[in-house]
């Protein structure tokens, strides 16, 4: 096993999209061979905003889709350990040990938690959502991860992990690495509506699994410059979602610069700009479609990867929990009581 460990993943609430790709998946693909790579299917985190029986029943199918999305994006099965969070109960043990190493006011300062509550339609924040970064710390540290590819929204969560690791080590001895954040080149990708970041809960997404027609349909409906009523009116490129996507995904940089110049001077219409974006996105997604078809054609592959990865990960986590309890002195507490009980029994 490599000394360097990468932990990252997603909640099984639906298929992955371009926002996931730029936020984390691109770095996962780039770094997969440099680390012992763990990819969590975070179904316990899903419960913080989606916890109906129907949500839970859909999670198995969503988990399969997530893994297939990552394989399609370029994660190689032999380089990856995919695992289901809820199938490793020892993560909950570590979460319990960490809960007293962070304060409520500290968690309340994590900016994305209120956004998550609002986006899921909750008037008040559930206890589990407030503790989301603590459970995330357990996820990261249970495999003693040294690196976490992270999008802008999750960076504050991982800072809590770093604080918990340092606090634990200070109190009980050097037990956990303090993981490094690996930031994305594109911090946040605005959604197709131009109003918020790309999000499954809002539905303003372009999925990694979309076919060419779906991509074109979503692109042609994208928000652009609201002040531009005709093609001969000079338009704004900065902050324009269509050009944000061109910069992120169009491999023809000369074409992008030419479109920007024409757009600023009122010499190109939104339709042409969008048509060329759709073509660029489909060039970007075509290799993923080929890999998806390849892996989807192997019966049982995804399920086997999840089962084998979960079993491997559970062994790692059991050892980590033992290390943490030993460092804290919890194992010796019970051993002392048991020795006393045995001595008393023998003296009778």
Automatic annotation (TrEMBL):
<dbReference type="GO" id="GO:0004830">
    <property type="term" value="F:tryptophan-tRNA ligase activity"/>
</dbReference>
<protein>
    <recommendedName>
        <fullName>Tryptophan--tRNA ligase</fullName>
        <ecNumber>6.1.1.2</ecNumber>
    </recommendedName>
</protein>
<dbReference type="InterPro" id="IPR002306">
    <property type="entry name" value="Trp-tRNA-ligase"/>
</dbReference>
<keyword id="KW-0030">Aminoacyl-tRNA synthetase</keyword>
<dbReference type="InterPro" id="IPR050203">
    <property type="entry name" value="Trp-tRNA_synthetase"/>
</dbReference>
<dbReference type="Pfam" id="PF00579">
    <property type="entry name" value="tRNA-synt_1b"/>
</dbReference>
<dbReference type="InterPro" id="IPR002305">
    <property type="entry name" value="aa-tRNA-synth_Ic"/>
</dbReference>
<dbReference type="InterPro" id="IPR014729">
    <property type="entry name" value="Rossmann-like_a/b/a_fold"/>
</dbReference>
<dbReference type="InterPro" id="IPR001412">
    <property type="entry name" value="aa-tRNA-synth_I_CS"/>
</dbReference>
<comment type="similarity">
    <text>Belongs to the class-I aminoacyl-tRNA synthetase family.</text>
</comment>
<keyword id="KW-0067">ATP-binding</keyword>
<keyword id="KW-0436">Ligase</keyword>
<keyword id="KW-0648">Protein biosynthesis</keyword>
<keyword id="KW-0547">Nucleotide-binding</keyword>
